[in-house]
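Query protein
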Amino acid sequence: MIEFGLPAGPLKVLCVGAHPDDIEIGCGGTLLTVAAARDVDARVVVMTGSEERRAEAANAVAAFLPGAELEMHRFPDGRLPAHWNSVKETLELVAATFRPNVIFAPRRDDAHQDHRLLAELVSTVWRDVLVLRYEIPKWDGDLGRVTHYVSVADERAQRKVELLDKSFPSQAGRDWWDEETFFGLMRLRGIECRSRYAEAFLLDKAQIAF
């Protein structure tokens, strides 16, 4: 397994999600790892959410990325494609005020239409920033090939699962929402990179400098 790392020093991180919990499900273990290892200036942008879900998102961000700025919007859940122009303008405003070193965003091939739209627009707004595309398990069965991994220590994997349940009680009744789902995916990705647990990402492209 070949290891790559980001430059040393403070790290500016942007997390983009369509719904409260997308980011934490997709890369919560990675965020806990980054927050423990680096001086992080983080911004979290979530596009949809009821008042209940907005409160959940605020609790989650405070737990996973202490000190991060949370920006929440009120676009209708499940209908982001119908608001293409407004969503892009929202992202462009973020880009005008925050210059990240790395962006965590959905995959282009995600089966959920809101996730796919964000994935498409992130690529048009940020053309020269490292974008790591996280995966979200779901009924659609859209998990695919990945290109990059972040090992997640056992205690942080446990912490991720605990924080997901604690931060998002509104999701507890869903048939896929349980610790076996979250541990199982991290364990599978861990096997693929010779780690106990890991989170996996898809990197569209990158330029290598020697």
In short: Residues 137 and 181 are 8 Å apart (CA to CA). The mean pLDDT is 95. The longest strand covers residues 11-17.
